[in-house]
Amino acid sequence: MRTDLISSRENPKIKYACAVRDHEKQRAADGVFFAEGPKLCLELAQSCAVRAAYATAAALQKTPALAALDPVPVTPPVAEKLAGTKADQGVFALFATPCPPPATLDTARRILALEGVQDPGNVGTLLRSAAAFGFDAVLLGPGCAAPFSPKTLRASMGAAGRLPVLHTADLPASLAKLRARGVTCLAAALYRSRPLDEAGRAFPGGLCVVIGSEGQGLSEQTVQACDAAVRIPMTDRVESLNAGVAGSVLLWHFRGV
């Protein structure tokens, strides 16, 4: 048990952890991200390097496995500041952000691509589904929620640490490169689309499922950069599904292809 207890809410290490929690620029500049909760932190520790960890005595007593993170002990008031709320879980950690090589897309066979999915809950849900259904990589285009923000991490349950997540400033151009090596790119869209059941199941060169936001959908340029558009057949009781649900249905449908 470490004895270097932090009891001041103004401790520089605590203030830095809060800055990483709250600011994407800080996360990007330092290559670290913030996570909270015993289950999430232990899960992330299996795939991401721990840069620092903090825990209350009560949290360590409840979950002895947290000792593997070598957390600095903190008092409940400090934990409250780290959580940003009074309902904290008593466990916090900073992890090194994974940096998959760009060449990952040269060999990945099943890829999820997102464009303009701004809601962290939807991005997190889709990352979790992509990991669950065996996809090899995720490609984030402009306008997507940050995969390592606290809200996205909670929704993904750390899935961003288990599969490569890459970024592109030009999604249509990235899709064109995938198609050039034989990957079939399917856009989730309504206009000029075919029902999902008619999309086929044979993609010898690989498959990329492309999903946009619920409100705006995919841009015309992105749809045109794909091989075809597909839609999920539904009754007329609802107009649409949110991006997290619709994308998860598509990822399940194309599992194992």
From TrEMBL:
Residues 11-93 form the MRM3-like substrate binding domain. GO terms for molecular function: RNA binding; RNA methyltransferase activity. It holds the Pfam family MRM3-like_sub_bind. Residues 111-252 form the tRNA/rRNA methyltransferase SpoU type domain. GO terms for biological process: methylation; RNA processing. InterPro entries: Alpha/beta_knot_MTases, MRM3-like_sub_bind, Ribosomal_eL30-like_sf, rRNA_Methyltransferase, SpoU_MeTrfase, tRNA_m1G_MTases_N. The keyword Zinc does not apply. Gene3D superfamilies: 3.30.1330.30, 3.40.1280.10. It comes from the Bacteria. Keywords: Methyltransferase, Transferase. Belongs to the class IV-like SAM-binding methyltransferase superfamily. RNA methyltransferase TrmH family. This is RNA methyltransferase.
